[in-house]
């Protein structure tokens, strides 16, 4: 094992929190239980990492072994990535083929390496017939950069693919080609949907809303924050009309349901409109270019925050369809233009 690989393994292990170290290493399943028992996990992290790297050297770890460890770490900390969603499609009338995961992997690697010699591709099978793919890009003259990979999560026999943000934008078409050909699809398009919460994106595109979602770093549940607002609210602005409260509650439940919402951090709206005026010769009316405006709603849990607006008396019910349609449309990027 050369110094470059040893350094890559060292940096990967250093990222793992001490509380998760044993769990991640056991999931990796590269070092045996007997080898792990020889390591003192109570020593300083730098010393622990040094001992683990020595064990990897003794066992002659490869780049793919190290890449697999990186995939496992990323699975544990998927919220640290920003995930985009791509949707694939078949030709009209095209039959659904029987899917073979091993054939998919082989075809995927062949397509990438046919176009790019220096690329590292690693796979890890996961739950629900999904596969995690890690791609470290190189160039025709440079080895793959293991520190800036792109991660892909594909659920077999579905048209949806989730990818972490790719810094090398020029490689996105090649990645799309490899995915469509390997999965027997014809076309791939990027959806206007993005979030750090992979499970929530999956729930939106697969219409699986009535379930629990990732809640990393949620300091106070929304129900508690809403209750706190009611307790400290000025008595002069408390709604006395019980019928109106019931109407708001009913409309909110009809709009959002009574289950936890998928977790998104923002929704962005781009408005393009021509200026309209009744006055002749108005400078803006003569402008050929449309007026452009960008509005962004942000929250640690945007959909739950929107759901709480009307019951808290902050907004009227029902909310605008532009805000409530996010899960149904599978979008949190919107472009609004004149009809």
UniProtKB/TrEMBL annotation:
| Matching InterPro entries | CENP-NAC/CAD_complex, Chl4/mis15/CENP-N
Keywords of this protein's UniProt record, alphabetized?
Centromere, Chromosome, Nucleus
Q: Where is this protein localized, as stated in its record?
A: Chromosome, Centromere; Nucleus
> Membrane among the record's keywords?
no
State the family named in the UniProt similarity comment for this chain: Belongs to the CENP-N/CHL4 family.
Q: What is this protein called?
A: Centromere protein N isoform X1
Q: Name one GO cellular component term.
A: chromosome, centromeric region
Q: Does the UniProt entry include the keyword Nucleus?
A: yes
Q: Which GO terms describe its biological process?
A: CENP-A containing chromatin assembly; chromosome segregation
Q: What is its main location?
A: nucleus
Q: Which PANTHER family match?
A: CENTROMERE PROTEIN N (PTHR46790)
């Amino acid at each position: 094992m050369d110094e470059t690989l040893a350094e890559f393994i060292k940096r990967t292990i250093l990222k793992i929190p001490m509380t998760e170290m044993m769990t991640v290493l056991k999931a990796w399943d590269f070092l045996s239980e007997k080898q792990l028992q020889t390591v003192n996990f109570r020593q300083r992290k730098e010393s622990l990492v040094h001992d683990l790297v020595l064990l990897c050297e003794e066992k002659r770890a490869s780049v793919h072994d190290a890449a697999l460890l990186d995939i496992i770490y990323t699975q544990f900390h998927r919220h640290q990535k920003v995930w985009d969603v791509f949707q694939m499609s078949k030709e009209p009338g095209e039959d659904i083929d029987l899917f073979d995961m091993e054939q998919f992997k082989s075809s995927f690697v062949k397509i990438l390496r046919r176009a790019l010699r220096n690329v590292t591709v690693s796979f890890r099978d996961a739950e629900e017939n999904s596969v995690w793919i890690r791609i470290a890009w190189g160039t025709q003259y440079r080895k793959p950069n293991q520190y800036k990979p792109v991660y892909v999560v594909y659920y077999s026999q579905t048209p949806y693919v989730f990818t972490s943000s790719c810094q090398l934008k020029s490689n996105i078409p090649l990645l799309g080609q490899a995915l469509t050909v390997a999965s027997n699809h014809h076309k791939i398009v990027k959806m206007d949907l993005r979030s750090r919460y992979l499970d929530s994106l999956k729930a939106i595109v697969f219409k699986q809303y009535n379930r629990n979602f990732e809640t990393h770093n949620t300091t106070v549940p929304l129900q508690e924050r809403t209750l706190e607002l009611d307790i400290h609210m000025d008595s002069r602005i408390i709604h006395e009309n019980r019928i109106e409260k019931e109407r708001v509650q009913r409309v909110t439940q009809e709009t959002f349901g009574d289950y936890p919402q998928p977790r998104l951090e923002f929704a962005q709206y781009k408005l393009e409109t021509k200026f309209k005026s009744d006055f002749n010769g108005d400078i803006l009316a003569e402008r050929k270019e449309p007026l452009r405006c960008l509005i962004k709603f942000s929250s640690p849990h945007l959909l739950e925050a929107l759901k709480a607006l009307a019951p808290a008396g902050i907004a009227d019910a029902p909310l605008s369809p532009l805000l409530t349609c996010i899960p149904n449309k599978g979008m949190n990027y919107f472009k609004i233009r004149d009809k």
